[in-house]
Structure formats: structure tokens, C-alpha cells
């Protein structure tokens, strides 16, 4: 069991860790009607970390009866509402999007009365990426949900990312606040002034055990050589465990670039909801969906 | 000579084209005091497309006397002013930054009386990237100069990028206007509404022979498969020749990501000035500086 406390540096190690620790969660699959999702579910089931609950049509139910738990639904919307209800009842520790449009699922999640976003909680998207050209996992936020994060939203992003890193046994994660330059510029980029405050808060322990620095550009965040070239001192040391992007455009460009041009493997979940939600999209690979289920399993605090 | 009119798809072909066409330009090197820059200058001189004019110290002058043209300067600032003056006198067709801080060089370039930015001209940064995972050069703007482009600045960016593509014998370049989604969202991203106007202007011929579409994300811009997955129709067809980023943060993240994680080769110049300016930075490779000189040579309209 000694591996259980050493740093999880890639997705294979994540899956190994879940097996070794016997970490297993109930994952509700919302409208489990497409083959890609069902393949990923099968993989997670075989790996032993997910107990799938298919919220699905009669047709799909007949195929998987006896193998998985089943809850019948009439439509994507009905499936969304039923899956969200499973979370409220404590029967699902994570949600995974199947063949349903994101906005339909989000409406059920965000419903003020029946939804699963606690009042005042910040909903954001966390991705873990393994790049062949970077020696460890790189967590980042947010490529998909918050257009222009406020300072409060950024504080939540730092907290979530720190939680993730701790779950991956990264004791003191290095979190970089991204900007195109290392100089704060309150005139054109007000958030770079906010970065200084976040640094100070982190140093004062506001986010638990982590190191926060910024503004730094992506290169000085992730390359010790680039940092030295620019003669900059940073406690990140060009070895960021996580990067926080200034806005959704920068985050989305990063996400698309690494998956399209840098052979990155990724896994992602929504945080802020009562349980993590896997919002994989049609274009994602089966492997990415599988890893996202593993990510949801390790980070879910439900039933603990 | 038949190659002279076929598309230039990478940097080797660019250098070949310059040799075949005998395209040669006078390039003033501003404060030519660092070995990286001098190596790139040597390569460009050997390749035959650059006639270097070193604006440099007495010490460096002694080393290169008889080989290159020399203009003595006392300091980085003096070198900047003298190099800019060479452009105004019609003696330099391009500028290249040596061991001088960007702001010092820019001050000389932007000087209202003695500078080389025509009144009303838009200064922006154009990069050409060759990614091992993309079949052709990808031009993009702007990772370094304009924080948040106005609609007028974006029009200039489209014009410059179109000029570049034409110089590379791309008859009808496909130019994509980047956003994190394919849906315009005037509320959170006012420029996405502007994109629709730019598309219409392009269709009406405002930018010459080119195709402009957007908003598109980076993946649907550069992957026919991703485009098909999302069931989107776009005349870009997932084969963008150029992408225009919403702002400097997104552009900078792209630039840093492809050079750090995707083994991209890049070349870049400033446009808007009377002649192209190579603003290579310390962290850039010698090869990147060499290619940037080639880029400046092919795009310089000086002396034509």
C-alpha cells in the first residue's frame, strides 16, 4: 500500500491508486444512450472504481439489465432530473453526461429547488492534462464555464484546484496565475492586480497548503529554463502543478491546443456541485471519458 | 522557377523561395551585441536573402568590418534611433531587434516625429507557426501587442494576415475568428457580434481574396473531424491558414503552448510599421530568429 501516498503523476497511476485503495463510487450516467459513453462506463466498471447507475431508455435497459443498476427515463430532460434526484437522495456520488445536451443537464443541476448547486457555491470546470512533454499532470481552470472570473470565483478556483492536487498526493501544489506578462497591469488587465492579493492570501494560508504566484506567463510557469532566461524569481520554479487562466478564452485555447496539437490526454469535471459532474463532449475520446470518471471518483467527497 | 508560385508550406520552403526568386533585403540589426542574434544574422547572410547592416558598438564593428555594413552606435537607445533613421532614409527594408529592450526599440519606432509608424496605422504582431501535427503553416495574431483589439484593429489584423498568406502564395486564405464557442454571445463577448460583421465584409471583398469565418473555436478551425463532430458548416473546413485571437491573453497562451508543448517552429514580425520589425526575444531560438528574418524579407514591400 505504499504507493497510496506517493504523488499520482499520470492517469494510469490514478487508476492504479483507485484499485489499490478500493475507492469505488456510484456514478449516475445521464441518458446513457451513446456507444462512446457506454464504452467508457464499461472500462470504469471493469477497472472496479465505478458502480454505474444507467439512467436510460427501455431499449438500453434491456441490454444492461442484471449488469448495472438501471433507472428508466423517457427523455434526456427526464434523465437529467432523475439523475440529479439520485444525488440529492445520496444514491449517486458523481454524475456523468451521456447523450444529452449540456444545457439540458445544466438546467437540472442548477434548478434552485431541485438542483445540486449549493447556494453561493461557485460552479467551475477543472481539467487534468497529461502532456507527453511535461513530467507530471497539469491541472487547469477554466476552459468552459466562467467567462470572466471575478476575484471571488478565482478564489474558489484556487481552492478546488488545491483540493484536486491534495487528492493526487501533491502535498504543496504550485499554482500559477496566468497572464501574458510577468508585470501586473491594472489598466488593461485589472485581474493582474487581483493576482497580487491572491498571492498574499495564499501565503497567509487562506487556501491551505499550496504555493500561489503570478502574474506569470504559461512558459515561465511550466519551464524552469524560460524562467531563468527571463531572470525571474518565482516559487513556482517553472514546475506548475496547476494554472489558473485569466478567462474562458485563454483557457479554451489552451484546452483545444493541447488536445489538438500536443497529444494531451485529459480528464475533466465540474466542481461546485454537491458531487463532481463529468461533462464530456461528443468530441472527447472514450479514454478521456474513462479518465474523467476516475477523476470524479477520486475527488468525490460524497459518502465519506 | 515553377516552385515560385506554389504554396509555401513550411520554413524550409520559405528560405528556398527567397533563394530562387533572388529576394534580398537590407536588414538593420539594432544593437547587434548578442551571439544568438549574430548567429541568426550569419545564417540569413549565408542563405543570401539578407544584407545585414549592423548598428553596433565599436567592439562588434571591429569583428565584422568588411563582411557586413556597419553603423556605429553608443548605446541601445542610440542604436534604436539610428536604425529607425535608416528606414526613413530608405536604406533598411526591415529591422531586427538585437540586445536591446523591447520598450527602448519601440519608443524609437513609435516616435511621432522621427518614428516609422505611419499616422493611423495599426501596430500588431503576426506569427507564422509550423506545427509537426498540422500540414501547413498557421498564421496568427496577436500574442504580444494589442491587449483587446477594437473592431478597426481586427480589420487591420485580417488585412495583414491576408497579405502574408498571399506572399506565401496562398491564393484564398481561410481565416478563422476565434472564440470558445461557435455561438456569438454579445452579452459576455461583444466582439463575437463584431465577428459577424467582419465575415460579411470579407464576403463583400473588403479584405481582398480571402475567406473569413467565425466565431469558431480553435479545434473546429483546425480539425475537419472536430467540425464534422459538432455538425457545423464552415467555409474554413477545419483547415485554417490563419487564426485571429480575441485578445492578447488567448494569443499569448497559444504562442507559449505550441512552442513549449507542441514542438512548434515559429517566426514573427511586427506589422503596421513602414517596414517589418523582428522583435525576437531572448528566449527564442536562433532558428526562430533566422526564420523571422526570412519572414521579414518576404513581406517587406520596401524598395519594390
Automatic annotation (TrEMBL), chains A, B:
Keywords: Acyltransferase, Transferase. InterPro entries: P_Ac_Bu_trans, Phos_Acetyltrans/Butyryltrans, PTA_PTB. Residues 77-296 form the Phosphate acetyl/butaryl transferase domain. One of its GO terms (molecular function) is acyltransferase activity. Belongs to the phosphate acetyltransferase and butyryltransferase family. PANTHER family: PHOSPHATE ACETYLTRANSFERASE (PTHR43356:SF2). This is Phosphate butyryltransferase. It comes from Prevotella intermedia. The lineage of its organism: Bacteria, Pseudomonadati, Bacteroidota, Bacteroidia, Bacteroidales.
Amino acid at each position: 500500500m505504499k504507493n497510496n501516498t506517493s504523488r499520482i503523476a499520470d492517469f494510469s497511476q490514478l487508476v492504479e491508486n483507485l484499485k489499490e485503495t478500493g475507492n469505488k463510487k456510484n456514478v449516475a450516467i445521464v441518458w446513457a444512450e451513446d456507444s462512446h459513453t457506454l464504452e467508457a462506463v464499461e472500462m470504469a466498471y471493469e477497472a472496479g472504481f465505478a458502480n454505474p447507475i444507467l439512467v436510460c431508455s427501455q431499449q438500453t435497459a434491456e441490454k444492461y439489465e442484471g449488469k448495472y443498476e438501471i433507472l428508466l427515463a423517457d427523455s434526456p430532460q427526464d434523465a437529467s432530473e432523475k439523475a440529479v434526484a439520485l444525488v440529492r437522495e445520496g444514491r449517486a456520488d458523481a454524475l456523468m453526461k451521456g447523450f444529452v445536451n449540456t444545457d439540458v443537464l445544466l438546467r437540472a443541476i442548477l434548478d434552485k429547488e431541485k438542483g445540486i448547486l449549493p447556494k453561493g457555491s461557485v460552479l467551475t470546470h477543472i481539467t487534468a492534462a497529461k502532456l507527453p512533454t511535461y513530467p507530471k499532470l497539469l491541472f487547469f481552470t477554466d476552459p468552459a464555464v466562467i467567462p470572466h472570473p471575478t476575484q471571488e470565483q478565482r478564489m474558489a478556483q484556487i481552492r478546488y484546484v488545491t483540493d484536486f492536487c491534495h487528492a493526487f498526493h501533491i502535498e504543496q501544489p504550485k499554482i500559477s496565475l496566468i497572464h501574458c506578462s510577468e508585470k501586473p497591469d491594472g489598466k488593461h488587465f485589472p485581474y493582474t492586480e487581483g493576482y497580487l492579493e491572491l498571492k498574499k492570501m495564499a501565503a497567509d494560508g487562506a487556501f491551505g497548503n499550496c504555493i500561489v504566484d503570478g502574474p506569470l506567463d504559461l512558459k515561465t510557469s511550466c519551464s524552469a529554463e524560460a524562467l531563468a532566461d527571463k531572470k525571474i524569481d518565482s516559487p513556482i520554479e517553472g514546475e506548475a502543478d496547476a494554472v489558473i487562466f485569466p478567462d474562458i478564452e485563454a483557457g479554451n485555447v489552451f484546452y483545444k491546443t493541447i488536445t489538438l496539437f500536443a497529444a494531451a490526454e485529459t480528464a475533466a469535471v465540474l466542481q461546485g456541485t454537491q458531487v463532481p459532474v463529468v461533462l464530456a463532449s461528443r468530441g472527447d475520446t472514450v479514454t478521456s471519458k474513462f479518465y474523467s470518471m476516475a477523476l470524479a471518483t477520486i475527488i468525490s467527497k460524497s459518502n465519506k
